Amino acid sequence: MKKLLSIAIIAIAPLAFSTQAAMTVQMENALIAVCKAGASNNVVKFNGTMQEYRINKQRIFPRLVCNQQSFYQFAQSQGAERTAQQILRYTKGNVTITDIAMHYEDVQMLAVNY
């Protein structure tokens, strides 16, 4: 009985550990290269890295985090303004809508953050 239990545990163990690996080594290296290219403030190098690894900008930039910062904030903190401007259109924004009919008596400033 102990032998059967041991075999069952050994057989199930790889299934339990395989869910912990979130990304492959190649994917991690590609994202590290993108972070380094973004910090360089060299648009040609940045675009070359994006093409080399075939990265979809719409899918990656809203989710990519470099050094616990969004990629846009990371590029700005590294002084890479040209690279930050390249990815600005892919960052998610916030929109605030105020119902004007409900507040017609009050003079309010309508703010839209994006």
Topology:
Elements: H1 2-18, H2 25-39, H3 43-52, H4 57-60, E1 65-66, E2 69-70, H5 71-77, H6 81-87
Helix pairs in contact: 2-3, 5-6
How does this structure look, described?
The protein is mainly alpha-helical. The protein is built from 6 helices and 2 strands. The protein has a two-stranded antiparallel sheet with strand order 1-2. Helix 2 (25-39) runs antiparallel to helix 3. The radius of gyration is 23 Å and the shape is globular. The mean pLDDT is 76.
Annotation field: number of helices = 6
**Unreliable residue runs:** none
Overall mean confidence score, pLDDT: 76
Tell me the total number of β-strands: 2
Strand content range: under 5%
**Main beta sheet, described?**
2 strands, antiparallel
Class from helix and strand fractions: mainly alpha
Report helical residue fraction: 40-55%
Please, what is the oligomeric state? single chain
Query: In order across it, which strands form the biggest sheet?
Result: 1-2
Spatial gap, N to C terminus = 63 Å
Radius of gyration: 23 Å
In sequence order, what are the helices and strands, one letter per element? HHHHEEHH
* Shape type: globular
